[in-house]
Amino acid sequence: MENQDYFISFYRDEAKAQNFSVNRIGVCEHMKPGMVNRPGGTGDSLLMFFHDKAIVNIKDEILPVPAGSLIYWEKCGHYYGNADNNWMHSWIHFDGWEATEIMRRAGMLPYQIITPPARIVKKMLKEIDCEMSMMLPDMIIVRNRFEIFIREIFRTGTKEKSSIRIPERMIEVRRYIEANYRKRLPLEKISRRFSISRPHLSAEFKRWFGQGPGECLIERRLREAEILLKDNNLQIADVAERVGWDDVCHFSKIFKKHRGVPPSAMREKVI
Hints:
It contains eleven helices and ten strands. The chain is of the alpha+beta class. A six-stranded antiparallel β-sheet has the order 1-2-9-4-7-10. A four-stranded antiparallel β-sheet has the order 3-8-5-6, with no helix packed on it.
């Protein structure tokens, strides 16, 4: 690669946020023969693109990956490199529940390996770095560019899936959950409505959408809750009830688990 492609950027703490942050970016970093071994990780999530063939540890299994491979590590240890030859990689470290949600919505799963074009990876990492390197970066712009980056690399890196059509019945199931999220929707009820066995429904739904029907229901409720929490006239218990939870304590527990902060803290940030 041309030398002008190479850079590594570390960003100031004041340019980061609790719910979403880009911590550092490297593009076309040249490495000598050797392995990187970080058993404890770096405390954040990592996307790494290998311009050359490499070796990686995925769930305690050492695997070779071809040039052009991109892997997603979600807050875990890292082991990668090439012990025999010079190699090059581009990468981005990020953190926050919003970043995790962006990955999930795009379809990216931890340890997943895809093969997007190197030119797209470099171009979009540079665009994110350009905004992050400003004196006063606009984190909304950064977040949007990050989401576009993730969606673009997933789309171009999984071309073999792009021509496969989601079964209409699975689309109907998802629409039903999205429209009736306030109601009690046990899996048995959904399976009876669409004449699908519970095991088959769970397996097929997760295959096509990357999450089970129950997870989809929870996420739909939480998205609505985030909007309702912006209304100061609503108590947190009111918000919980409106999105389908009668128990406000249970709602708060689920909200914190999936969003990283309790509803009260989310409301404070909004205010």
